[in-house]
Amino acid sequence: MKTVYLALAATALCVAGSAQAASTSYNSTPADGWFYGNGNDYSPANTAVLTTDDNDQLYLRFHKTFAVAPASSGNVYSFALGTDPMSFDWGIDNNAGASITALLTLKNLGTGQTFSYDPFFVGNDNSNGAGSSQNSFRLNWAPIGFNPGVNDTYRVTLDVSGLAGGPQSLSIDAKLGAGVPEPATWAMMIGGFGFVGGALRSRRRATVRFA
């Protein structure tokens, strides 16, 4: 019986491994370039590109609408306060021609507001006829409280199921101004404030006054 459980566990690990086999490169260019619309296939493409072992690709980038995308730091694109309107480009290269489904999710990290939509819904994608689909979307089209004048961070996540190598997910962030600190950063800040407060209290207790 133990042998059966071990075999099942090994099989599950193999399946999970094949679904997760992918590498992500930043400030890169998708294999099929950017063919949607006009003037979008510029260089450098500054795109986050996830590539599977089967050479399928998911890719995303943020930019000011009608402007080229800036280089990112990892998956984070930084913009000055007041940058508006803002867009992201998305793309999927389905080389195997598998029957896939996809979901794009936008999140305001400052408020927690989210909005999701199907990128394959009629009119939402442009295809090159060879398995690749692309398009763009503006942050102010989604009900997530986008405000270009406030320090905040916005995240877009592309989830795709049905690819030859299993489901894949790719996320990028757009940081306006100082952005929104990650939870670990908040913890460090709070801890730092506590340390400073404790030091000040100790210093006050150690003060000696002479008449």
TrEMBL record:
It comes from Sphingomonas horti. The keyword Cell inner membrane does not apply. Residues 180-204 form the Ice-binding protein C-terminal domain. The lineage of its organism: Bacteria, Pseudomonadati, Pseudomonadota, Alphaproteobacteria, Sphingomonadales. It holds the Pfam family PEP-CTERM. Residues 1-21 form the signal peptide. Keywords: Signal. This is PEPxxWA-CTERM sorting domain-containing protein.
